Amino acid sequence: MDSFAELMRKRRSVRSYLDKPVPCDDIRAVLEAARLAPSARNRQPWHFVVVTDERRRSKLAEICGQQQFVAEAPVVVVAVATESERIMTCDIPAYPVDLSIAVTQMILAAAERGLGTCWIGYFDQEEAAKFMQIPDDHKIFTVLPLGYPADEPVDKERRPLADMVSFEVFGGSREGTK
Amino acid sequence: MDSFAELMRKRRSVRSYLDKPVPCDDIRAVLEAARLAPSARNRQPWHFVVVTDERRRSKLAEICGQQQFVAEAPVVVVAVATESERIMTCDIPAYPVDLSIAVTQMILAAAERGLGTCWIGYFDQEEAAKFMQIPDDHKIFTVLPLGYPADEPVDKERRPLADMVSFEVFGGSREGTK
Description:
The structure is a homodimer. Chain A is of the alpha+beta class. Chain A has helices at 4-10, 24-35, 54-63, 69-72, 94-112, 125-131, and strands at residues 46-51, 75-81, 116-117, 139-147, 165-167.
């Protein structure tokens, strides 16, 4: 397969999907990528709901601010945090970290199979949780459409490494520290 | 290279490191993996401090609750969130998501090169930020040692897929929905 660098470059957010089913084995491989993710204290505080029903996908698109491509995708995975209260010692909430690792592995596993995804954070938490019948102490983390891309890749601009890396201390240069 | 599934299985948390330098090109490739990460609205709200100085690594080990392997690793990357206030529409804070995607790509890029990492959330935020000279409105996201593993792989147990996946609604079975 591609090198991991190539895989990362292949992954992109897809906002238009073909009307073409996703093989079950590929859906399983994408879920398996989440299953293999590391999590703080190996708690695996996640659950994934696979939505394929057309009416339910349409309703999810509506809940995601009328983003119609959510309904276009033949599969929508709703990622759920099953613990949402724990804060790590470093004062950062644990669930967005654990869930993000799992979802990142999913989107990369999807990209490896030529499948597109789009990590959606634009939805009403309460409305989505009610529609998906999520328990009160859980939280919907993201809505992730999954399918074959119908749009053209758009390269997002990235800041150069020199703008986001320093040495030894924040803002420290390589020269000052060697 | 390995398939992505093999790469995910190869990645593990390493808590003992060889006294063997990490080539600059590999450090660069690991940082490049963060640079390529997607982020909400492409804000790329991150900064990475590469620490190689031995005394500074020792101090970081101390700040991370005396986890001595932090000092053992020849390189420690301190990942910093440069925005820590933004909340997404879905009521989830944005910075742990953006930073987690970047760090996940880093740990996988490291694993591809035979390098070990350990995602550390056990440190005092205030003490670490002061030591690393982090601006007040930033937050240290994780301390990530990077080096060649000296310990034996331990397989962490994972829940089976059937325990973490349902269909159409939370708790829904495949049978009920098809």
